[in-house]
Amino acid sequence: MKIYEEGSEELKNKLKLIRNGCVEGPQKQSQLAEAHIAEIKELLVQYTSPQSGFYDLTVLNLLTQSLSNLVTQHPSNQKLVWNEFGDQFPRLIAYPDMQIVQTSLILIRNLSSTANVRLLSRRPVLIALLDLFIKLERTHEDDDSVFHLAFVIVSSIIENEDVDTVWNILDTFEDEPLTPPQAAFIKCLDAYIHQSGPGNLKALFLIPFLMRTLDFCRTSMLSSTSAQGEPDPRLGSVVQTSLVAAETFTVFQSAFEETRNHPLLASARSSQLPELAVGALEASLEFLPSIKPFSKESEHDDPLKQFANFKPALMRLISVVAGSDADVKERIGSVGGLRACMNCAHVDMRESSQRESALFTLSVLLKNHTSNQQRVRDLGDTPVGVLDAQGVLQPFEGKNTRQI
């Protein structure tokens, strides 16, 4: 390879010729790739290596643009570039300059437009994409075009790959309830499903994930409440991601109604998820009123903010899992689910949907279920409401704050 001085105009002009020459069509793309791909690879390694001392954004931008044009609608070049350059893409995605990140994402989007390229064949690329979402959220360095491109790529993974296989790639830390890339992926999946619907997705991983995180939340909350100490520092992020995962599960309700014995719903009902959701709800009723600011940095913020909507999300999860299944309703009623929901059926200005979620979940658990109806009657005078002759809960109007 010819050695170019840093900032070489000769190199820039050469890369522009390669980039612009691709517009002549597939035959020209093939010729340019055969003639220049080895040199481009060496240059890309040189200009992305922190140890090289080369830092020229113009050259790096031209390199990624040239590669992007070489692979556009050219399957054989796509396969070639993926095999030759795949290990370099995490460096490009993590590059500190957003313009370079943007052109790199365009390159990866063009690459992933064919069945020849499976993004999951290289785990570091997936991790780098998810880390990019984390970076944008943390630093608020949110260029809409960068975020959109990254989301389009992850969406293509969700559409073309098995999401449970994706999760298995990410779920490698047995001792951790949650890792940042896992949280980022669940947020992407939730956004994709809200945008496009569940379709044929199964997402069976949601059940063991929710079981693990809700058990962690329950244990951490009870431990903090009994010891009157600060909760596990991981609790806030686990609660927030559990909330997103629970909401993702509830979006599948339309699919549950259309598909008899939907595997995701069947998996939820055959697991301990209903009991764990009730346990987390009960623990939150004791834990959340006891929260105080955890540090000086949070004194000016509402310390409950990171737990907002956790209880409503849990109750919506319980109602969808229960549905019209009498056995699941019985399991929920027998572990205190009715009492927990009734204790949420008061007006809370910080969680405007809490009372509505509680009353709806109670209506689901009580409908056509005599033993749950009897459990409510056995509670006697409650601040929530009374059962009519048909076993339907008639809620009291106004604020109800008394616990039962």
Automatic annotation (TrEMBL):
One annotated Gene Ontology cellular component of this protein: cytosol
Q: What is this protein called?
A: Ataxin-10 homolog
State the UniProt keywords alphabetically: Cell cycle, Cell division
Superkingdom, natural source: Eukaryota
Give any single GO term for biological process: cell division
The record lists the lineage as:
Eukaryota, Fungi, Dikarya, Basidiomycota, Wallemiomycotina
| InterPro entries, A to Z | ARM-type_fold, Ataxin-10/CTR86_families, Ataxin-10_domain
- Its job: May play a role in the regulation of cytokinesis.
Q: Domain (Ataxin-10): give its ranges.
A: 310-381
Family note: Belongs to the ataxin-10 family.
